Amino acid sequence: NVLGCLMAHLIAMKKLVEENYDIILEDNIRMPLKIAADRIWDTIDASEESKGVKCHLRYYGWLGSLPNLKWVLNVHSSRKSVKSDQDTIENDSNIFYFPIVSDFDDNEGNTDDDDDDETQQELIIHNSSGHTTPGGSAIWGAYAYWISEEGYSALLKKLRCDVGAMLWKGKRMRQYMVKPIDKVIPRQVIAALSQESIHVTKKPAFFRAPMLTSKIHSKWDPMFCSSTQYQLCKTSLTWLDLWLTEVEKEIVEHHIQ
Fold first, then answer.
1. By CB count within 10 A, which of 78, 169, 175, 252 is most buried?
2. Rounded distance, CA 75 to CA 197, Å?
């Protein structure tokens, strides 16, 4: 399944680059229909008007563990915001640079905010899994993004020349494991084109569907849901603002009750 997902994304990237599409979407996303287009255009405009390094990978939707989400949204997104000539104190940037492991080393600032009791309870549940502080892979997912021709070419070149870019094997493992595509893409783009070439929106236009069963890591499904709920809240949305199937609406209504 992991290898199939990786290959599917490589095929999708090839089509996007050759036929000049705007975005790659997985089928596990839901969007706020009334404002999704505005959020997409705001992200594109902010990215294209940014100073410095050209953007080669742009995220319109993303996720992370709840501790990492709090750190990204409350600390990193302000510290590493992508600036343009249009940004002022009153009008902050809509995007930030993709977080890397070394960004956690300078983890000054408060990751807490004025969460309501329900969000705090979700954090307690999430922390019971053992992940209680920010760290590791700050951002998950490759379900809504765009990549440039240069970024795609750099990724392909690395995968063709270095099997370690796609596979890994621990000392006690008998066989190789495929690396998830959401880890492969940003790592190789950063290695070839820099961290500053990856822009992430502060206000996603796409969110992971509620309680969707993953084909790769289903054990994390409840935590995906709690993380998405927190992300929605921090961007002034609720589950009910998203387009959902009838079954998903029932799930959300049951969760709210």
1. 252
2. 20
